[in-house]
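Reading a protein record of the kind used here takes little practice once its layout is understood. An example of such a record is reproduced below.
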Amino acid sequence: MADKTNNDEISLDLFIVLTRAYNSVVAHSIRDIQSHGLNTTEFGVLDLLYHKGPQPLQKIGEKVLISSGNITYVADKLQKKNLLVRKASPDDRRVIFADLTDEGRAFIERIFPHHQQVLVHAVEGLSVEEKKQAVELLKKLGHSAEESFKAGPVV
């Protein structure tokens, strides 16, 4: 591969490498999640409720990046599996909270430690120091991309 010094070429190369790395790491996560009879959105909801406690349904959608219509569908599926329960807010009956059932809590407590190890294994190609550097660089890249996106399209 030729030494790339042109900013445009390096930027495209970064995009390709970042996308491939993301896809490879996420493949580990998806395979593990599916082995438990869940899809990634269902797992994301259970994970959120496990780590953050009961959440309003509309906030769950924002945090796991799905639409309000889809969160209703996902909550229905998890409720049918007896992993999630809905509860009206005592302060505002228009607000519905989702929470883990006892069965849901036991389920996520059982599978989460292994899932965490799957993710550790997926990124073991980097040393601890390299992981710290990657976190900082990717945060910087993410914030910059977010700001430039808000500024509008390139003309």
